[in-house]
Amino acid sequence: MNFQLSAYSNRLLKPASEVFYSARKSFSTSYIESLYRNIRVKDWRAYFSLGVLGFFSGTTLTDVENLVVNFLKLTVTLSLYLAFAFSINNCFDVEGDALQAKKLLKNPVAAGLISFKAGLVFSVCLALLGAFITVAWFHSSPFTVSLYLSKLLLAGFYSVPPLRLKSRPFFDLLSHGFFFGALPYLYGVSISGDLTAQFLYVASSIFTYSLILELRNHVEDYAEDLLSGVETTAVHLGYTRSQNLLKILLALHWLYLTLLMSTLSLYVVTLPLSPLFYLIARWKSVNVSSRYIRAADLLTCVAYALTAFSSGVRLEGSTL
């Protein structure tokens, strides 16, 4: 499939002054507000939800007061982690984001509203504060602490040179599957309950789905990344082969969910998964913006929520 770039070139290569003007217009002149915008809270939704999903999957209702306290601890530490991940990413995406108006609007560093040094110091402070609080609150659970520190390290390696995994084909997908997929979920589980084989299975399913989300972003940004010289997995493989890889990952994801729902006897979700799996198998191409994909996202959320409430939020303690 020949991917036409001409439709994107004029938009991407508009005069820099025009792009910077639109970005500055959207930001407040307040320095504090620019720092806040740099952590991109609006983009947290899916990743914060993974930690919450894990928490309620492992929790019990035997001690409501302890549940509330632990949930607040999860909220604080997970927020600091996500703030660091997005802030550090903005710091080292300045070059590419400066060429793309839609990304520049989300990056105060690239827009020149805060300096690179200030953004970097701010990011490091968020990481250190999150690590300190996590160790202080969960020092009796080395597994919980190790999960949090692993997330921090991977999020840093993803954005920061010389590793900068987001610019290394396949490593960009794999790292994203861990630090914005399986690890936040397992972190939530570790705070509220014991780790079981079922939770590991769900984590592997979430890992696969996180790969899908990242690859979909790569495919949607294919032209921009190609023109700006960012070698993502999609750019490395080419547009057509990236679509094929996305198709394979979607099929694997639905197979995961079908087996999971069947194991939990949640046939109300299993039944619609079967025809969806069939439709994926017949696809010649994947339209990442299609109504089917959006419906698949919604059904995925429903399936994970049902998993949480069937295996967690129970009246008895967790069992190994």
Topology summary:
Blueprint: H1 6-12, H2 16-26, H3 31-38, H4 45-58, H5 64-91, H6 94-97, H7 101-104, H8 116-138, H9 142-159, H10 171-192, H11 197-220, H12 222-228, H13 233-237, H14 239-263, H15 267-282, H16 291-311
Unreliable stretches (pLDDT < 50, length at least 5) are 1-17, 313-320
State the CATH topology.
Farnesyl Diphosphate Synthase
Number of helical runs? Answer: 16
Largest sheet: none
Overview of the structural elements:
The protein has 320 residues and is mainly alpha-helical. The protein has one domain (18-311): Farnesyl Diphosphate Synthase. 74% of the residues lie in helices and 0% in strands. The chain has helices at residues 6-12, 16-26, 31-38, 45-58, 64-91, 94-97, 101-104, 116-138, 142-159, 171-192, 197-220, 222-228, 233-237, 239-263, 267-282, 291-311. The radius of gyration is 21 Å and the shape is globular. It starts with 5 loop residues before the first helix and ends in a 9-residue tail after the last helix.
Structural key phrases:
single chain; disordered N terminus; mainly alpha; disordered C terminus
